[in-house]
From TrEMBL:
Pfam families: PTS_EIIA_2. Residues 8-155 form the PTS EIIA type-2 domain. SUPFAM superfamilies: Phoshotransferase/anion transport protein. CDD domains: PTS_IIA_fru (cd00211). This is PTS EIIA type-2 domain-containing protein.
């Protein structure tokens, strides 16, 4: 999946930049409230994403920056979406690799996908994106959805040129 295809899943009304969030649970409540109002998720979404994160943590340490890719089963998603949070202060997630380790996260992609194979492909694309230090540094400086679109298109074009 290309960065441009990834962009097509991103949801402007569920994208937040320089957002103040107190904790991982507050972030889940925030995305749930917005997503429920807009018809993206079922009533059970908040409980299920919180439970899944406890069982299968999604924090990823990227050197000086942390990211997370929380998600839940397709049963709790009515319309596909990816919510993006770029936080002004990090919140604690547990590491995907070792759930006893904390990761201070400033970039969060909340996946609401309906097809299991899409979820795997999306995770692979996001992890590839997150492993690009230059892109991640730019990501933390984003202030709007338009800036996010520009970044993904530019980086996708550069990635295509390399291949």
């Amino acid at each position: 999946m290309s960065y441009e295809e990834l962009f097509n899943f991103l949801t402007p009304s569920l994208s937040f930049f320089n957002k103040k969030i107190a904790s991982k649970d507050s972030l889940f409540e925030d995305v749930y409230e917005y997503a429920l109002k807009q018809g993206f998720v079922t009533e059970e979404f908040l409980e299920k994403i919180t439970l899944r994160e406890k069982t299968f943590p999604t924090g990823i340490s990227l050197g000086n920056i942390g990211a997370a890719i929380p998600h839940t089963d397709a049963d709790y998603v009515k319309k596909e979406f990816i919510a993006v949070y770029v936080l002004d202060e990090p919140v604690v997630f547990q590491s995907m690799e070792d759930n006893t380790q904390d990761v201070l996260v400033t970039i969060v992609f909340v996946l609401g996908l309906r097809k299991p194979h899409s979820q795997l492909e999306m995770l692979q694309t996001l992890i590839a994106l997150l492993q690009d230090e230059k892109v991640i540094t730019k990501f933390t400086q984003l202030n709007s959805f338009d800036e996010l679109k520009t970044l993904l298109i530019e980086e996708g074009d550069q990635k295509d040129e390399k291949n």
